[in-house]
Amino acid sequence: VPAHRLHTGSAELAYSCYDGLYPGHIQTTSFQKALLAVGSGVAALQDPYRHDMVAVLGETTGHLALLNLRDQMRNDLEGYTILTERPRIRLSTLDLEKLASLPDGSFGREYLRFLEDNKVTPDSRAEVKFVDNEELAYIMLRYREVHDLLHTLLGMPTNMLGEVAVKWFEAAQTGLPMCALGAVLGPLRLNSSRLESLFTSVGPWALQNGRRARCVLCIFYERRWEQSLEDLRQELNIEPPPVILRASNKRNA
């Protein structure tokens, strides 16, 4: 039986619990969404580290892409399980001691190393407010919480070049306009040497892998900590990065 048919009952139950919405939701008209999209886009362009503006831009422009991602998740067994169980990636849900005890090269250990090296935390991800559907709101939230895991899978730090490379991958993977905008405008903030690296090696690699990889939202990462990073990359059809980028001590994205 197609997964999307099995999902119908649980989706309707979720909608009935929140009357089609969810805690923290802010109702907006199409015109208001357009204003928010323009304003947040300008603010995010001026300061790419404005997480709040980037979040608003994603929510107000991503409806069609979120529908497509929902279809992919509903028709994937693991993706359907994620939609049903609604896992969260937060410090409160992570067993950091267990991750630290895993062997080098395991996905969980390398994810923890990424957090430590780049001085980031999964708790920095904003809650969703402007998506007018509870299930789509969760998918947007899941995308945000999976972002750091993608950095780990792709071997990209949180400096500007690493962030742009991940955005190129995400744009090809998700179709979210926010990712496409970041992929197009992000290079404007790179110096000449990093631009050369982006356009000659890192960028083409990110686009190619984004197009051909399995949907990254259909992986229950919380059950994959002990899997080797290399095996998970092969399962997702992601090649290792062409160059090794190091974490920067500067302000991280």
SS elements, strand count: 0
Tell me what portion of residues adopts beta-strand conformation.
under 5%
Instruction: Find the structural class using helix and strand composition.
Output: mainly alpha
Main pleated sheet: none
Descriptive overview:
- The protein is mainly α.
- The chain is 62% helix and 0% strand.
- The protein has helices at 3-18, 30-46, 51-61, 63-74, 77-85, 96-101, 107-118, 134-154, 160-174, 177-185, 192-212, 229-236.
- Mean pLDDT is 87; it is low at 1-20 and 249-253.
What order do the helices and strands come in, and which of them pair?
Elements (H helix, E strand, L loop, with lengths): L2 H16 L11 H17 L4 H11 L1 H12 L2 H9 L10 H6 L5 H12 L15 H21 L5 H15 L2 H9 L6 H21 L16 H8 L17
Helix pairs in contact: 1-5, 2-3, 4-8, 7-8, 9-10, 9-11
Organism: Characodon lateralis
Protein name: 4-hydroxy-3-methoxy-5-polyprenylbenzoate decarboxylase
Keywords: Lyase, Membrane, Mitochondrion, Mitochondrion inner membrane, Ubiquinone, Ubiquinone biosynthesis
